[in-house]
Amino acid sequence: MRNTFLAVLACASAITGVTAHPERHDHSKVHSPAIHARGTDKCARQIEHRRDAAFLKRRNALGKRSTSNANRFMYKELQNKTCTLAPDTIFGPYDVDGELHRHDVREGQDGVDLYLDLGLIDVETCEPLSDAWLTIWSCNATGTYSGYIGIDPDTVEAYDGWTTRSDGTTDDSTFLRGISKTNEAGIGEFLTIFPGYYSSRTTHIHVTVQSKVNGDDTSYSDAATQHVGQLFFPEDLINSVYQLAPYHAHLATLNRTLNSEDSLYPTANSDGNDAIIATELLGQTLADGLIGYITIGVNRSAAAIATTGEQVNVQGAIPTVSLSASAQAAANTIDIAQGYRPNGMRV
Ligand SMILES: *[C@@H]1O[C@H](CO)[C@@H](O)[C@H](O)[C@H]1NC(C)=O
Ligand SMILES: *[C@@H]1O[C@H](CO)[C@@H](O)[C@H](O)[C@H]1NC(C)=O
Ligand SMILES: *[C@@H]1O[C@H](CO)[C@@H](O)[C@H](O)[C@H]1NC(C)=O
Ligand SMILES: *[C@@H]1O[C@H](CO)[C@@H](O)[C@H](O)[C@H]1NC(C)=O
């Protein structure tokens, strides 16, 4: 079992309930509590400091917005900041290898903007982990993943008229996926939207970490993955966001799975672990957007996580897409206009 990952901030809440879901995984492979208790609290102060600094830095960079509530967190429970190892989770059926390197992954997807800063910390030294590559992916506001737009998020079956390719994908769309590099402070920055939800899973964002990449070659076949995880949100925030368009319409066709009913949330948020993103409002209302921050601990010494085999997904391999130079160039243009480099790092 790998112990590459750890996670985060506040104290874990009591979570119960496990339900079946379409993402294949094996709890015996994703849960090793004996090891995870180790080497954790020693990083707590660094994590707290880094989170506060990340929020402030992001606000300053976004300057045009009100900073009146810069120090006010929406959720009181986030005042408890422990640094704990969290178990690895799974790639799940919707990962794609070969994504665009970029900061802004929105591609026009409608929803609440989420400025998501992910801080990596080396669990052996409690130092920031710089020059590591982060990959994120999530569904859109009504539950659809890019590359899988032919899949009905309510049933997880192909829509009439759509066929699934041999690698599981249905198309070549790329929204709400991207890869970005961590800076010298160990922080990677994304601009995405608050995710929607799909059948049997609570709201989440997937993340992987590759800390030993040669140059810019982030393909899973060439560069070891040291962490694969899922990040969650507080239940009350999810409910508030889903009162807004375009999220709200989905409730008419699919009741959402609560955090407490999710199959992976308890694993990622038990034994003192906490994989819940700390958030605060960017402006005065939710519709103005959110800033999110979480610290992820990575063990650079741990063995690479397998990216093939039946633990990965039903196909046994992560689909690989080849993106055109023009798609990367278009992403670069958007990022450069926002003050980011083509590798997703802030200028
Ligand atoms: C925060 O930690 C303190 C001390 O361990 C505890 O009493 C309190 O209940 C915790 N608060 C939350 C929200 O978890
Ligand atoms: C999510 O993506 C699907 C597939 O492209 C699209 O039909 C749907 O309108 C999108 N949801 C929103 C809220 O735009
Ligand atoms: C959601 O759950 C409620 C209560 O069980 C039920 O009445 C309603 O039909 C469900 N909605 C959908 C879209 O399944
Ligand atoms: C990191 O991984 C190595 C190799 O598996 C292991 O020996 C070490 O104890 C791990 N460190 C932590 C802090 O878990």
UniProtKB/TrEMBL annotation:
Region (Disordered): 22-41
Stored InterPro entries: Intradiol_dOase_core
One Gene Ontology MF term: iron ion binding
Membrane-crossing segments per the record: none
Keywords recorded for this protein, A-Z: Signal
Keyword Signal carried by entry: yes
SUPFAM superfamilies: Aromatic compound dioxygenase
Signal peptide: 1-20
The keyword Ribonucleoprotein is assigned to this record: no
Protein name: Intradiol ring-cleavage dioxygenases domain-containing protein
